[in-house]
């Protein structure tokens, strides 16, 4: 795990200055405190910061082949690199290190840009073809690692984080109102947008190609899910998924440094610990929570899971004061606002884990792959709703709209009335109706059609997922949109803020491609979510873990703070008409929304938290952020 950056003067041909590359590398030192490296070839320059994980002595980057015809900078891990190395040696390539980076170098020499289709891993990478003077920048299929870029007047700057791009290209040009509208609707900014005007991020599974003819961006990962024929039996699917999990764990434990686990109280990370125990015992595990005073806390459950499997467990305890005081610094680490209350516990659990390990596994993925959220029930059974008589649907919808709060249910009923896939998916994922969000803006700020910009970013998804059922199509989109640009994005930024590499074994390419071919009955069956995943869990986990309630960390806590009659800094930022957000938004409309939420008439806690995060982000941009003490 590392940080990459670079500059390419692809039209002007002017030489890149080393001092610019040094600034770009310095901006992301936290991503790679162990080593740095540079490569200049006239109009092209690479800069690199290394967190040493595999081949500690020989993995220096930028890395080239023996002839120095191909140069690579790479952030991430290639889990199938031993197999690829053997295959490439069969073609006559001679390796000089045991680093996974070198398989990208010789893979490119063998297959060109198609090397990307041979890689099973997480990556943001750049490849310089000396003979063709062509630059390739790519992001992994499911967006576990990020890549940002800015192109202006024939020059491209790119990097693992926005701050690296800004160090080369200068400060961004301000706020993109379209991206702000998208953030407030979805609590993250979908690729290729960023909230910073002029800065973009590569979408998962896309590549940027740049040479003297210009710059282009396109999708390299075009594998479309084809249903199994004949369909899998329950027993066959269970056995195959269990084997895929086992093999993925074996790959994800490859490391020359200590590995740990971010452990919740649920079955997803519990299964990871059980799988890890097949390769050794007494793994270090880490959990964060608010303590027994909160019903949604996971500390006790996680401690119990760790004890069952003999793990060396560490708990991190947070208080409300810590949450509030740390928020500005954490927002600064994110670079863009991501309005999940889990960002604070994620920051502190990574901070603690890094004291012991350089690599930590995380149980992200099964909810998106197997239908673990309530929204998946609605998508799964939308066809049943459509079969009800019109009068019945109208009556039910009217009754739901009349309810106080229950905004999730209201959005669900509205979404069920939509028959086209993308508008349905868009509605299901939105925090609030589009008119509610756009109504918060001052007149003249939003360009026409801003709220529907996400449909453009989903571009070719309908074609790629054409053979999936309704639920499968929705999950195909989630795995390439909400998962990478929200959950995986903050996991990457907040772990690397502490120089900690986080790996996600459930998002192994072989697992995702297998699950995406399964019909909906293997994911949600008779209202049981994550059906096949639970079947595999029952093989290795006791019932006490499988039967635990699914907990949404800190949701009730944050909602309670907004409704608390005693003011907090969160409410104060919304009530202050001088807050920076009101350069874009109407104070009266935001404050009316807060009042209705506090009175219990509506439930706007998610959108209100998004507004708080946006205000915090604006203040950090203007004033900087204070340092944070350990929890």
Number of strands: 19
Count of helices? 28
Distance between the termini: 25 Å
Name the strands of the widest sheet in spatial order: 2-3-1-9-8-10
CATH domain topology of the largest domain: Rossmann fold
Query: Which overall shape is indicated by the principal axes computed on the Cα atoms?
Result: globular
Q: What percent of the residues sit in helical stretches (DSSP H or I)?
A: 40-55%
CATH class of the largest domain: Alpha Beta
**Assigned CATH superfamily of the largest domain:** HUPs
By CATH, the architecture of the largest domain is named: 3-Layer(aba) Sandwich
What characterizes the major β-sheet?
Answer: 6 strands, antiparallel
- Give the C-alpha Rg: 24 Å
Mean pLDDT: 90
Q: Please give the domain count.
A: 3
Short summary:
This protein is of the alpha+beta class and 631 residues long. It has a 6-stranded antiparallel β-sheet, with helices on one face.
